[in-house]
Every structure is written in structure tokens, then in C-alpha cells.
Sequence to fold (857 residues):
Amino acid sequence: MRAPHRPRLAAVAVAVLALASILALPVTEAAAQARGGTLKMSYPEPTHLNPAIVSGTPTGIPGVQLFAGLVLHDDKFQPQPYLAERWTISPDGRTYTFHLVKNATFHDGKPITSEDVKFSIETVKANHPFGVAMHRALEAVETPNPSTVVFRMSHPNPSFMSVVAPILLPVLPKHVYGTGDDIKKHPANQKPVGSGPFKFVEWQPGRHLILERFDKFFKPGRPYLDRVIFEYITDPAARLAAIETGAIHLLPYNYVGVGNLKRVEQLAHLGVTTKGYEAIGPLFWLEINLRKKELSDVRVRQALNHALDKQLILKDIFLGYGKVADGPLVSASPFYNPKIRRYEYSLDKANKLLDEAGYKRGADGTRFKLVLDFIPGTADTQSVGEYIREQAKKVGIDMTLRASPDFPTWAGRMGRWEFDLSLDAVFNWPDPVVGVERTYISSNIKQAVWTNVMGYNNPKVDELFAQAQREQTLEKRRAIYHQVQDVLTAELPIIWLSEIGYTTVWNKDYDGIPTNIWGTMSPFDTVHWKKAK
Amino acid sequence: MGLGSFVGRRALGACLLVLGAIVLNFLLIHLAPGDPALMLAGEAGGTSEEALRKIRADFGLDQPLAVQLLVYMGRLARADLGFSYFYNRPVLALIADRVPQTLLLALTALTVAWVVGVGFGVLVARKPASLGGNALAVVSLLGYAMPVFWTAIMLLLLFAVKLPWFPTHGMVTVGGTGGTLAQALDVGHHLVLPAVSLSIIFVALYSRLTRASMLEALASDFIRTARSKGVPESRVLLKHALRNALLPVVTVAGIQLGQVLAGTILVETVFSWPGMGRLAYESILRRDYPLLLGILLFSSVAVVVFNLVTDVFYGVLDPRIRHR
Fold:
């Protein structure tokens, strides 16, 4: 039996206390926080405001303000009460029972019931890009009474607690979204009726989105802010100017621009943190098309890994924000294997491996040619590409850097497998079931970007990933994922380069900006304007 | 040829031009690499092949290009510009929402440019070889040579950050309150930097144009006559020379009304001004074909209409043109 989530009052109280301290708000002070203020932030504009049917931060950040989920997580990946005040997991790990807080209502005043939770998870399973991966094991949802919802699984499903946070399970009102229309085109996606701390006021495309405090939010006294406003500022120089002058107050996910961070850190009124990206687990890596003859040889891939000084990439190009990555899991993950095989920077070893693979240097010193693509949009990525090209030249690989004018062009090349190597950024998400296995399992070799576009096929890896989905204890799962990491770092279907050091920049007139594992994809009900009276 | 048939012939030509522009816009956009379905899938965070197929079918992207073109033309004939892939809202509404802001920005910038540019031109033409004249000539050349986005960013850094006199972005203070007057002042406050950025290049253009045609006019016989009659110099400059020198400036200004969109793209992007230019730029990045086609159609029509008006205006002014 898994002990931590038994519905004991003391345990709940401890959890609440823990949550409050994690959110940097001592309980006594929290009760006395003054209300008021408007938090203005800038972030890319979403296509719509329904996080149940898309992933991604543009919908996610406003989405979790609008919609509540069953649990939140602290900064140790541990679930904390939210819309669910307590929960139990059956000893066989196949039944999850959640008890919802009483008196919670949607923004239109109707009560939030277990029926809405059932509808929401079914909508996610059928429509969200990770829907099937997250809820493969989900067999049935039962609603014995309005405040109890029971999920029955076909097998133990230990990743479940990490996918019922608001970003992955936003609780939608069934009476609004369940009208039988195609949910992807539902008018409420543009004008949502939510369950979260802030309600929708107005969205003017290309200009701004205004959210306002929901006075009947189920957490007493929250939220503190009157309004949260998203302004769509497309030009990076203008964004920097806006946060510098105090016109906006929050720029998450490096939206301030990595090159501007040093300047921002010198401004006394701005805070910078790298916390709050643990659940996203963003990795920057070099994807390898294993269908290419030279690249199908593991020695060539190992040579490439030896030829790259990842420390230099991190220090000189990413200006020290982030960490060196040598494997498929970010180091903050509870499943991270610290003893994975690493390939130290050594041009000698790289040259030796390439010689062994039988690719001798020609008269001009070249062994073979490769084309390197990169995900467009940031100057840093191109710089990494240029660095890799120069390093490849040192070991006799003639590499051409191929720019894509925009994201669709690049995504098209990846989706059609028309690449040799490509720089890419992919998120781990809080559990490997959601964000890691999709890159490596053979059933996900698809003609679509962010799948197993490398064509990596190892039945052993498939089996390990499948097994880890069902093991109940953290220890057993960890052991399996450690094995996966050993195999993958030996075979190198990908050369991992760095854990992206995303930063959140905020104006210090505000505190309580969430820094749990979900960071700014958590509700802002904790955010408080210091000048509020 | 009568004026009526002249106008009719030109109007017919204009219609054919618009039709050609529609087909050309459509082909150009669909020839650009990049697949909107993949883009949308990317927005959604990666997806399956089945989902991609469904997106393509939903938007008719699985049809041959010729069929897509015919469907598009058919819809246009019913004044249906389609739905934006990205916003999932009618294209016509999205464009209509942006036109007033771009007109406000463009007309303000052009008016400023016109007044300041012509003023500069006259001043310089008065004493072209003087120190002041040369300085103005150099300044206007600089203004013409500076890229719009660079000027815009410099103005932003200087007058919104270093000297925080003006707001950094947008057209209104979002969530601001106040009466109509306060709101109008707010918009005016936001308008200054974008309008100045956009006008600088036109100031340079008009001042050089005015200077050249002023010098030409000042060298004419009627100016010498006026001066020898003892007409005061200021009157010679403004009444006699400037009126004649203005014709080419008016022509250029008319044509530029239709083309100002190109300049607004950069300025609107730097200052997050919610106009057509920024909408165009963003719809390119998002491969939002219906929206982009709508904007291109709108701007093609604008250029053709302004040219038509200029043409007809000439025909009225100078009947000889009608027979060419």
C-alpha cells in the first residue's frame, strides 16, 4: 500500500502547510495578504484557450489561471491538494479515488462535480496530443456522488498523479463544452468558462487577453490579484523595454531573450529565477537520422559526441544558463540516472572512432558529408549549429548548416525524415511516460515532428518503457528507467547537449510567483502585489 | 475619348489586375515551403499522422492546388474570405478589426511627413548652397538611408526607456480607465513614437522631392518675372514656386498611400501596434494561408484603387493623358 496519500486530516493539513511554505507564503501572512493589483505579462499568443486539447505554454499559462485541476505539485514532484482535497490509491495500484472540495463552482456559478471531471479526462484522452500516452491505462471513470470521482485502470498506473495537474487535466464545465459540437471548434475555446482562480474577461486577437479575479474561487481568500493581463509584444527589444520600464511585470520561459539576461540581472527592480521548469524538463539535443548510412554506425555517433565540448556550448552560447545534458532525462527528474555513460570532449577519441568505423580521410581531409538542420527562431540555436559544424570539420566531417526560414519549413523536413542531423528542443514533462518514451519507442516512428523521427528501433528499450509504465513503486520504476538510460546513452540515437536553462523574469513589486515544478504553468492565486493596500 | 469611357477602361483594367493579383498571391503562398497542418500540429505539441490528415482534410489542404484555387475564388465571389487557421475566426472580421489602426498610424505618419518634408524642402531650396541647406540635405539623406526598424528601435530605447516619455508598446494602456477624452489622449500618447518612426523615411523623401522641384520651379521664367515685378520673396516662394513644385509631391503621396503597409509591418512589429502590418507578419510566420491571402487581397486592392484614383485624377487634370 502506498502510504503518503491516505485521507487523514493530519496528512492533509501537513500537505497544505507544505504547499504554503513552498509557495513562499507563510500561512499567517497568507491570511493577511492585501488584495488588489494587476499583473501584466507578455507571452506568445495562443490559438485558443482550451488546454484540454493542446499542449504548449501559450495556451497553458493562461489556461491554468482559467481552469483548476485535481492536484498541484510541490518542488519535489509530490502531489498537493487542489480541487481534490484528498485521494486514495488502492493497494493494487489500479483504482484512484479523488474527493473534491465542496462548494467549488465554475465561473458561471454552476457547481463543479465529479461528472465534470469525468467529462474533462475523457476529453483530454480523446483530444490532447499526449492524451493516449497519459491515459492508456484508464479503463473507466465512475462518479458515485457529485464530490467523488473514481478512476479504474487496466494495470497499475504510477504516472497518473503527475498528469492530473491543471495543465494536463483542466476541469471543464460539461454543461458548456459537452454540447456535442466538435470540441476543437467549440466557441468556448475563444471565450472560456473555467474553474480556476481567474475568469475570462476579454481577448482581443494580436493585442491582449484580460483575466479577472474569480470571487467565488474555492480557495478562501484567493486569488489576491484583481487582474492578470497578457499583452502580445512581438518584438524582443520592445519586450525588454517594457519590463525594464515596469510596463509589464512577468516574462517566463526566456521570453526576455537569453542575450538580455545579464542586463536584466543588473536591474534592481527585476528578479530572475531558473526554478519552476522541473516538470517541463526541457532538453536541447542533436537528433540523428539513423537511416543515413554513416550515422547508422554507433561509432560515428559516439565520435560526434566526443567531438563536442558541451561545457563550452553551455558557457559561451547559453551564457551559463542551464546544465550539460548527457542522457534522455533531465537531472531534476526523480528517475534520472547519475551514472550514465558520458562521452568526454576529445577530438583524438572522435578521430580514432571514425577511423575504426572505416571512414578514412580523403585527400582533402574529409571523411564524409552531412547536413545539419536546426529548429529556427533563436539566435542561440544557430550559434550551436555553427559550433558543431566547426567541430565536425576538425574530425573530418564536412557539415553544411541548413537554415529553415521558419518553423513550418523545419517541421516539414523533420516530419518527412528529410534530414541527417537536427538541433531540437523537446520537453521531458513530469513523467517519462508523457515526455520521454515518445522519442525512443518504435511504435512512435511517425512522419510527424517530435516523434521518433530518428527511426530508432530497439525492442529491449520498447519493453523497458512498457514495463516502467506498470510498476507501482518509485524504486522499481527508477531501476527500469536507469536501465533505459544505460542502453540509450550507449547507443546514442540522440546526442543530448544541454538542459535548457529557462528563466522567469519578474518585477519585484510582486511576490509569490510560483516556483514549484510547474512554475508559471501553475495558478497565480499565490501572486501578491506588494503595493496593494 | 470621353472621360466616362476613359474611367470605364481604367476600371476594367483595374479589375483584371486584382484578379491577376488574387491568383498570383494564392500561388506564391502555396509555393512557399512549409505545411500549415504541421505548423498547427506543432502548436498543439506534436501529433499523430491521423490528426495531421484530419487537419489537412478540415482545411481542404488535401485537395490538388487547382481545386483549392477554384474553391477559394468561388468563396471570394460570395465575399467569403474564409476562417483564419490560427485564430479560428472569420478573416474579414480580423482584417476589419485592424484597418482603422493602420489607417490612423499611416495617415498620421504621412501627414507629419508631408508637412515637415515639404517645409524642409522649401527651406533648403531657398538657399541650397548654404550651411543650413547642406545640413538639411545630409540629414534628409540619413533619414532616407536608415532602416525603419532600426530607427524605430533607437527611438524606443531613447524615448521610452532612457527618457520614459512615451509608452513602450501597444495602442492603449490595457485595462486603463477614464473617459473618452482620456482614452483619446492615451492613444495619442502611444501613437507618437510609431508615427515618428514611420514618417522619418517619408520626410526624407518629400523634402528631397520638394527641394528638387522647387529648384526647378525657381529657375523658371515666371519666377524671374515675379521677382522683377517686386513680389516679396516669401510670396514668390510659397505662392508662385511651391504651388507648381507640389504636383510631383502630390503624385508620390497618392501612390504611397497604397504602399504604406510595407513600412507599417516593421513599425507595427517593433511597437506592437495592433494593425494590418503586424497581422500580415504574424500570419506569414504561422502559415495562416486564409488570413494572409485576405491581407494580400486587401492590400492589392488598396494599391490598385489608389493608382486608379491617381490615373483618373490625371485624366481630369490633363485631358491629353486620356488618349494615350
